[in-house]
Amino acid sequence: EKAGYDHFMLKEIYEQPKAYRDTMLGRIADDNKSVFLKELTMTAEYIKSIRKVHIVACGTAYHAGLVGKSVIESLARIPAENDVASEYRYRSPIITPDTLVIVVSQSGETADTLAALREAKRSGARVLAITNVVGSSVAREADDVIVTWAGPEIAVASTKAYTSQLIAFYLFGLHLAGVLGTQEQSAVEELIAGLHQLPEQVESILEQSAVLKQVAESISHHKSLFFIGRGVDYAVAQEGSLKLKEISYIHSEAYAAGELKHGTLALIEEGIPVIALITQEALYEKTLSNIKEVKARGAHVLGIANAGFETEAAKSVDELFTIPKTLPLLTPALSVLPLQLISYYASLALGHDVDKPRNLAKSVTVE
Ligand code: M6R
């Protein structure tokens, strides 16, 4: 059932091009000019009434939501906030009827996420679920559902569910923009063209897994490392860090690149690996200056940059992994791939049970 792969995680990493295609299928108009999520029951009138969005989830799904916030804010210009589901109810969130609450859950059974959904409904908000399991509790109780068609995810570490959640956010953002008229038609078409290119671009990253295996093997000798980035790169850094901790048991922290000098820089010492995401053109110079700060303290930096910046970026880092060029907002759907593979190979190098890491369950049904 692992289809020739050594682990479910690796199989699921390689299934991502298909998961992207399946999640987009039937949701983009044939002329590639618009996105239409026919499954949504929310009306255009309702969409026009949304004043804020709360995105609530746990773990990796929470990290997908961090990207989702950027997607919704930039495409639909509606303010969005992120909450970890286990914190949401207890901070007396201000949920009003013009709040759209989006819960994100691969399994659709996570207790904290389900509890957050119920709290949102009690407060009179509409709830949209992004889930991978049709008929799950979250899917049944939400007002609207966008199913991610990633197929069953068996490995405890989430990979294809995360990236399909990103695709769901891109589609939903475009759906909102279509109703609200917040984007130029040319920008919509550019994003749709970008979405269509992603599966092949993912394939080209997967072809370079041998390089990432080497990186992972050298990382596996370290006790601790850092992931840094700005904007959506910071969101992806957090996901990369969680994935590595979860299956390799190596300590790591994800930091907004500009925040390091406010404390964490004290932990940078000779030889410590730093994985720097450098995919956002507008933030490029700033991130490079943060890389210089860690390099000056002896860090060994692996840069993950977009094709197009590689010549410049190469000068500032010790090693460079290049991902294909895409639109800034879409980069998380590519930049997370090398991080997934590094975690996988690090876990493998350390001889851990990749698919069933210690202390963890696939679905967390207790609060
Ligand atoms: O099924 P869910 O998406 O609600 O699960 C949420 C988290 O438990 C899950 O993403 C967890 O963080 C993963 N094991 C991370 O790889």
Structural class of the helices, strands and pairings? alpha/beta
Terminal CA distance reads: 32 Å
How are the strands of the largest sheet arranged? 2-1-3-4-5
The profile of the biggest β sheet is: 5 strands, parallel
Radius of gyration: 20 Å
| Mean pLDDT over the residues | 96
Number of strands: 10
**Share of helix among residues?**
40-55%
Bound heterogens, unique: 5-amino-5-deoxy-1-O-phosphono-D-mannitol
**Topology as a string of helices (H) and strands (E):** HHHEHEHEHEHEHHHEHEEHEHEH
Q: Indicate the proportion of strand residues.
A: 15-25%
Net shape: globular
Helix tally? 14
Low-confidence stretches: none
Structural commentary:
It catalyses: D-fructose 6-phosphate + L-glutamine = D-glucosamine 6-phosphate + L-glutamate. It comes from Paenibacillus harenae. This is Glutamine--fructose-6-phosphate aminotransferase [isomerizing]. Catalyzes the first step in hexosamine metabolism, converting fructose-6P into glucosamine-6P using glutamine as a nitrogen source. Helix 4 (59-76) packs antiparallel against helix 11 (232-248). The chain is an alpha/beta fold and 367 residues long. Helix 12 (284-296) links the parallel strand 8 and strand 9 (300-306). It has helices spanning 8-14, 16-24, 44-49, 59-76, 85-88, 111-122, 137-141, 160-180, 185-206, 209-219, 232-248, 284-296, 310-316, 332-349; strands at residues 52-57, 80-84, 99-105, 126-131, 144-147, 224-229, 251-256, 273-278, 300-306, 319-323. The mean pLDDT is 96. The protein contains 14 helices and 10 strands. The site of 5-amino-5-deoxy-1-O-phosphono-D-mannitol has 15 residues, from helix 4.
